[in-house]
């Protein structure tokens, strides 16, 4: 048993920390107010290798392990949630799904440019009429010769308006006995005819990011872009969430840390009733909660990352990490605003942005109600994980780092 | 071109450095590469890229200096040497040790430093190393040196403005912010660095013994606490307040 990060992990942490703190922290408020993503973010994250951090070198990635992905997400969200969202969808939902389920040809064609950051990916699953109840999505894919014809609307899609490729799940068999068995996943070029998309404005949080909708009208997708088999779409989407949720958990941990650091700083400085407010025990209680939640959230996501490295199924642990960390980050951000008093209510300080940003993660990648249901069904013995036809490959440094 | 970059390990800039029981401490704050040295590494790597050759990282320090070395390796330096120096080294001793190591490395054309270390803040090590080696020193270099036929041209940042200076190799340079942001380590660099074995040289290996520091620290203290009191001056009109304020300033002998 060893709780130490390796030297490599610490260097990854520092590198991503320095990028986020030096290049993004100084400009983030301005872009959050503009409700737009700073144009340099995606190319810069690509150039630095962050977008392909845990993808093998042979597939264009940086060849680091899954724990490094988590550490990077923690550092990114300690500055702004929108940076981590990029990792959740580009890396977690899109690239890692290709790594797990894609054929060698699909990896060469789609994963390589994604991992290098030359192309941007997203995951388009939710629809206006179905989120939590994902098995009942309505968007359809109909086979026609060597193509599938996609129709439908995807909603609340992060990077909808920035991505080149989307991992999309649609219904191919409306008559399937179980709704979840009638779904199929595709990697779709979003520059195809029939795709229209746009950003959603007026969001509570993640304002410096892009969240939008994608409309598919008779979009012809080559059959070779189908991921896995027909009818495997539900399983593929759920394994995409195993990876997306992991990034959300790690990121939320970073948000707790940021809320804690700002709270400690302010509580030491702000005077009330003749002493720094840090001297008041009710303030200490808030800080104590944040400090311990940070440690617990961190251990939960690192455990999930460690299991991914080892090639162990981690749906249960990842869901627990996501639930715990995102609830705790919302609480931490809210208490950080409280500690800042009136000033916390203004965007002069970062904490109000943390609060607005933290709410999203309680909803997306499986709402925390859904995570509770998952945990309960494991605990009650109603749910067991059956082996998947394709598991996320365990981290093997030699395979990961070998040139193609 | 054979380039050496000297780096030092220091407490993180965010650390609170205090004196406790007569000892300087920064708690459990991490040790990092001296931020100014990142500029020295950047300059060395740019020079190596332009003129060919490799960059060797050199540091004097104990086992804990490895973060600084690994950071420089991860940025792209080819190899590193750590010298186990005396614990009570002052700048003079450090400079003597570094100069001997540079000589031992051999055929060095160029040595880069950060402008100062953020812990000691002396900023004289580059000059002293230059003196021991008998090489010209271009301190506070503000540009990447241009090199043609063994002649170096560089701009120096001075209080008055920029100074263009010229000299011969081998030479010593120290750098600050003006050369532009240092690169981050690449992931490939990080992997290489984490695997790198760093040779350790002792003073014996350098043929040095009984180095006597010229400066010792008999006592270290925390700076005196600043007592700040705030007084709000009331008055009937701005003119009245200003007059009272002016009287106060005169009485306190601020002006
Ligand atoms: C900022 C943001 C970014 C997003 N990015 C993406 C993305 O990149 N890709 C993507 O596909 N989707 C994305 N989403 C969508 C997100 O995953 C869904 O919003 C989420 O899954 C919830 O679905 P819904 O909105 O349809 O709510 P619903 O499913 O309608 O749920 C409404 C409420 O009912 C609760 N509920 C539902 N079923 C149950 C139940 N059985 N028991 C108890 N409570 C229940 C939910 O927890 C929720 O509180 C994003 C959303 C946001 C806000």
Provide structural commentary.
Chain A is an alpha+beta fold and 404 residues long. Chain A folds into 3 domains: 7-119, Butyryl-Coa Dehydrogenase, subunit A, domain 1; 123-234, Butyryl-CoA Dehydrogenase, subunit A, domain 2; 237-399, Up-down Bundle (Butyryl-CoA Dehydrogenase, subunit A, domain 3), CATH 1.20.140. In chain A, 50% of the residues lie in helices and 14% in strands. Chain A contains 13 helices and 10 strands. Chain A has helices at 7-24, 28-34, 41-47, 66-77, 81-101, 104-116, 233-269, 281-310, 315-339, 341-344, 351-363, 368-379, 397-401, and strands spanning 121-124, 140-144, 147-158, 165-171, 183-189, 195-199, 211-222, 226-227, 271-272, 275-276. In chain A, the strands form 3 sheets. Chain A has a 4-stranded mixed β-sheet with strand order 1-4-5-8. Chain A has a 4-stranded antiparallel β-sheet with strand order 2-3-7-6, with helices on one face. In chain A, helix 7 packs antiparallel against helix 11 (351-363) and helix 8 (281-310) runs antiparallel to helix 9 (315-339). The mean pLDDT of chain A is 97. Chain B is of the alpha/beta class. Chain B has a single domain (2-202), classed as Rossmann fold, CATH 3.40.50.620. Chain B has helices at 35-51, 66-75, 91-105, 125-133, 187-195, 238-251, and strands at 2-6, 9-11, 18-20, 23-25, 31-33, 54-60, 79-83, 110-114, 137-141, 146-148, 151-158, 161-168, 171-175, 200-201. In chain B, strands 9-13-8-1-6-7-14 form a 7-stranded parallel β-sheet, with helices on both faces. A 3-stranded antiparallel β-sheet of chain B has the order 10-11-12, with no helix packed on it. A two-stranded antiparallel ribbon of chain B has the order 2-5. In chain B, helix 2 crosses helix 5 and helix 3 (91-105) packs across helix 4 (125-133). Chain B is globular and about 75 Å long. Chain B starts with a strand and ends with a helix. The mean pLDDT of chain B is 93. At the A-B interface, helix 1 of A face helix 2 and helix 5 of B. Bound molecules: flavin-adenine dinucleotide. Flavin-adenine dinucleotide (FAD) binds next to strand 1, strand 3, helix 11 and helix 12 of chain A.
């Amino acid at each position: 048993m060893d709780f130490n990060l390796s030297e490599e992990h610490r260097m990854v942490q520092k590198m991503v920390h320095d990028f986020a703190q030096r290049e993004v922290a100084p400009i983030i408020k301005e872009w959050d107010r503009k409700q737009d993503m700073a144009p340099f973010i995606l190319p810069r994250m690509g150039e630095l290798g962050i977008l392909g951090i845990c993808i093998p070198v042979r597939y264009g990635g940086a060849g680091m392990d899954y724990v490094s992905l988590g550490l990077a997400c923690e550092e990114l969200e300690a500055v702004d949630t929108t940076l981590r969202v990029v990792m959740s969808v580009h890396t977690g939902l899109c690239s890692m799904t290709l790594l797990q389920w894609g054929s060698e040809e699909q990896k060469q064609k789609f994963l390589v440019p994604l991992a290098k950051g030359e192309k941007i990916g997203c995951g388009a699953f939710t629809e206006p009429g179905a989120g939590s109840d994902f098995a009942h999505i309505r968007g359809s894919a109909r086979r026609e010769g060597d193509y599938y014809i996609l129709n439908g609307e995807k909603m609340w899609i992060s990077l909808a308006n920035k991505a080149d490729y989307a991992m999309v799940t649609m219904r191919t068999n409306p008559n399937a006995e179980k709704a979840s068995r009638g779904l199929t996943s595709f990697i779709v070029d979003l520059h195809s005819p029939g795709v229209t998309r746009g950003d959603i404005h007026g969001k509570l949080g993640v304002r410096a990011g892009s969240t939008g909708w994608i409309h598919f009208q008779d979009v012809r997708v080559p059959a070779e872009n189908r991921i896995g088999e027909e009818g495997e779409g539900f399983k593929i989407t759920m394994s995409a969430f195993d990876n997306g949720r992991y990034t959300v958990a790690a990121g939320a941990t970073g948000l707790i840390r940021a809320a804690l650091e700002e709270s400690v700083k302010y509580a030491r400085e702000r005077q009330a009733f003749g002493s720094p407010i840090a001297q008041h025990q009710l303030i200490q209680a808030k800080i104590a909660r944040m400090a311990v939640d940070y440690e617990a959230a961190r251990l939960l996501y690192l455990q999930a990352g460690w299991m991914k490295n080892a090639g162990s199924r981690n749906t249960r642990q990842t869901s627990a990490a996501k639930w715990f960390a995102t609830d705790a980050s919302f609480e931490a951000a809210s208490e950080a605003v409280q500690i800042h008093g009136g000033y916390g209510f203004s965007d002069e300080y970062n904490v109000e942005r943390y609060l607005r940003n933290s709410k999203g993660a309680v909803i997306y990648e499986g709402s925390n109600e859904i995570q509770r249901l998952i945990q309960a069904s494991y605990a009650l013995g109603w749910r067991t994980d059956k082996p998947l036809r394709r598991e996320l490959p365990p981290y093997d440094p030699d395979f990961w780092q070998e040139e193609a | 071109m054979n380039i050496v970059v000297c780096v030092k390990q220091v407490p993180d800039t965010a650390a609170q450095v205090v004196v406790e029981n007569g000892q300087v401490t920064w708690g459990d704050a991490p040790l990092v590469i001296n931020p100014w040295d990142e500029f020295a590494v950047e300059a060395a790597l740019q020079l190596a890229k332009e003129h060919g050759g490799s960059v060797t990282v050199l540091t004097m320090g104990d086992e804990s200096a490895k973060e600084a070395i690994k950071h420089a390796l991860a940025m792209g330096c080819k190899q590193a040497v750590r010298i186990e120096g005396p614990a009570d080294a002052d700048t003079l001793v450090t400079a003597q040790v570094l100069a001997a190591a540079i000589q031992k490395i051999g055929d060095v054309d160029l040595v880069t430093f950060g402008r100062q270390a953020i812990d000691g803040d002396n900023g004289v090590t580059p000059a002293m190393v230059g003196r021991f080696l008998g090489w010209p020193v271009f301190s506070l270099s503000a540009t990447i040196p241009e090199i043609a036929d063994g002649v170096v041209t560089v701009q120096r940042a001075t209080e008055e403005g920029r100074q263009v200076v010229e000299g011969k190799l081998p030479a010593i340079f120290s750098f600050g912010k003006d050369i532009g942001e240092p690169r981050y380590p690449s992931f490939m660099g990080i992997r290489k660095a984490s695997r790198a074995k760093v040779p350790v040289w002792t003073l014996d290996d350098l043929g040095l013994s009984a180095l006597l520091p010229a400066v010792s620290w008999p006592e270290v203290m925390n700076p005196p606490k600043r007592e700040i009191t705030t007084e709000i001056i009331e008055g009937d009109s701005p003119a009245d307040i200003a007059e009272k304020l002016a009287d106060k300033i005169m009485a306190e002998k601020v002006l």
